[in-house]
Amino acid sequence: MMANIDELNKSIAAYGKYVNDKQRHDTLIYNLTQKRQAENEQRIARGEPPLSMDDIRKQKEPQLQTRNGMLDAMLSSCETQALADFCVKVSVYLRTFYLLSLRF
């Protein structure tokens, strides 16, 4: 169970880093697009052909740095939850059994 929790913590940290990188990437793409549009408007006003947006579109997006995306995290979470549920059921059963044994 502790290994699963450690794996979940690593996945959560990787996902947090991915979200930050994705936001940074989206902001960069937005700024570059706005700058290119302003530049193209100036070029059109001067009678020059506009520049292509292809180089902006070809920017690589950040990748989630886990082996199978979030699949491993979900499986670890489900396994940990199942183990916790089992422990709760066993403890309730043992408590009930203990209380019944005190009566006899």
UniProtKB/TrEMBL annotation:
It comes from Oesophagostomum dentatum. InterPro entries: eIF3h_C. It holds the Pfam family eIF3h_C. Residues 37-56 are annotated as: Disordered. Residues 1-91 form the eIF3h C-terminal domain. It comes from the Eukaryota. This is eIF3h C-terminal domain-containing protein. Residues 37-46 have a biased composition (Basic and acidic residues).
